[in-house]
Structures are given as structure tokens and as C-alpha cells.
Write a structure and sequence with these properties.
The structure is a single chain. By secondary structure, the protein is mainly α. The chain has five helices and two strands. The protein has helices at residues 2-20, 31-59, 61-66, 71-89, 99-119, and strands at residues 24-26, 94-96. It is globular and about 45 Å long.
């Protein structure tokens, strides 16, 4: 249940990024199609972050230290851009047109995701 919650929050954050940032778009003939595309892209983004990001952090540990963590913004942008490319390979109509839209989009997705986690806390499985 927790994974579905996180995918939903990421999908909403991606939608906000498509609204706010020029260069990030989701196409579709209906709102339902766009919503399903965003959910699928959120799942892909979660997998990319779960698999590739730890490897990058481990291999690039020195860059994180030298830049006081600011390289993380670049890494997040590149992971969002990679997600867009993977979505294109899967014929999902989600597009990031370049590095700068990916950079600003990663910031928007991170901030909106954080805010949504604050506003809508997930329930513990113990309750």
C-alpha cells in the first residue's frame, strides 16, 4: 500500500511539473489517459530512483562532498530526463525537452512531493 501511495504522490508532483515548467509535457486525448500516463511515468521514475540513484551516489560520493550536495540537483535532473527517455521507449506520451526543463522539473517534483507528504501523511501499517 505504501508503494501505491508514493507512486500517487509522485504522479501528482509530475503533473504539477508539467503545468509549471515549459519543456515538460504529458499528452493524451483525455484526462484519464493523461492521468494513467502520469501514474506509469511515476512508477518508472520510482524504479529509476531506486535502482540507479544509489549507484550514482556511491560512485560519485566525492562529488557530493565537494559540492556540498548540490550535484544532487544535477543527478535528479538527469534521472528525470532518463525517465522521459524510457517513457518514450515505452510509447508513453511524457516528454522532457532538455536539461534545463529537467533540472527545474526535478526541483518542482521534489518540493511538491515533500509538501504532499507533509499534507497527506501516510498511515502506519501498525495501526
Amino acid at each position: 500500500m505504501r508503494i501505491l501511495f508514493k507512486v500517487g504522490i509522485t504522479a501528482v508532483a509530475l503533473w504539477v511539473a508539467t503545468v509549471v515548467i515549459d519543456g515538460i509535457s504529458v499528452d493524451g486525448d483525455t484526462a484519464g489517459r493523461r492521468a494513467l500516463t502520469l501514474v506509469a511515468v511515476a512508477a518508472i521514475f520510482g524504479l529509476v530512483n531506486a535502482i540507479i540513484k544509489p549507484l550514482i551516489k556511491t560512485l560519485g560520493c566525492a562529488f557530493y562532498v565537494l559540492t556540498l550536495g548540490l550535484i544532487g540537483l544535477v543527478v535528479n535532473a538527469l534521472l528525470l530526463w532518463l525517465t522521459s527517455e524510457l517513457a518514450g521507449e515505452l510509447d508513453l506520451p511524457f516528454h522532457v525537452t532538455g536539461f534545463w526543463p529537467a533540472f527545474w522539473g526535478a526541483i518542482v517534483v521534489g518540493v511538491v512531493g515533500w509538501l504532499l507528504h507533509l499534507v497527506v501523511p501516510e498511515k502506519d501499517d501498525k495501526d
